[in-house]
User: Fold Tetraspanin from Ciona intestinalis.
Amino acid sequence: MAKQCTLFLSVYKTLLFFSLLICLSGGAILGAAVWAAVTIAAFPNILGTSAGIFASVYIMIAVGSILFLGSMFGCLSIVVEKKNMVLGYAAILALVFLLQLVGSVLAFVYYPIARDAAHSSIEFYNTDLQVERGWDSIQGVLECCGMNYYTDWKQRVGTTAQPNEVFPKLPSSCCSDKVQTCSENSATNFRIGCNPKLQSFFVIIGGIGFGVLVIEILTVAVLASALRGM
Assistant:
C-alpha cells in the first residue's frame, strides 16, 4: 500500500511539473504568435488570396491560449483527483495536438505560394496603393528590402532613371532614414531581403511548438498511468 502511495505521489508531482511546463510554453507560443501577427500585419495586403499562410499564425495564437488556460485546468484536475476532469485535460491536449498539426501543414503548404505572390507583387508597387502601403509597412518594420534581396526592386514598373540618378531607385522604406533618394548605393539601405526575416518567425514558433509537442506526449503518457490508478 505504501509503495502504491509513493508511486501515485511520484506520478502526481510529475503531472504538476509537466502542466507547469505546458503553461509556460503556452504563454511563450501565445507571445511569439501575437508578436508575429502584429509585426507582419500589413503583409496580407500584398498577398491577396495567398494570405492563407497567416492562418497558421492565428492557429498558433489559439494553441497558445488553449495550452495556457488548459494547463491551469489540468493542474486543478490533478489536485482534486477527479477522473472526469483528468480525461477532459487529456482531451484538451489531444485538441491542441490536432491544431498544431493543422497549423504546421498550412505553413508548409502556403509559405512557398505566399513568398512567390509577394515577390510578384513588387511590379505593382507604383500602380496599386494597397501593395505600396503593404511593402512600405513590412520593410519598415522588419528592416528589409525586397523579398529575397534589394535587387528585386529592379523589376518595379514605372521606374525610370533620371540624369545622374542611381538606378534603380528604391522605395524610401528600404532605407532606415526613409529618404526619397533611397538607392542601392545608399549607406542606410536594408540590403537583406524580407524572406529570411519572415522565415525566422515560423522557425521560432515552430521550434517552440515542437518542444511543447514532446511535453504534451509525455504528459498524456503520465495521465494514462494516473488514470489507471484512479
Remarks:
- The CA atoms of residues 144 and 190 lie 5 Å apart.
- The helical segments are 2-39, 44-47, 55-80, 83-121, 129-142, 194-228.
- Residues 1-5, 157-167 have pLDDT under 50 and may be disordered.
- The chain has one domain: 2-228.
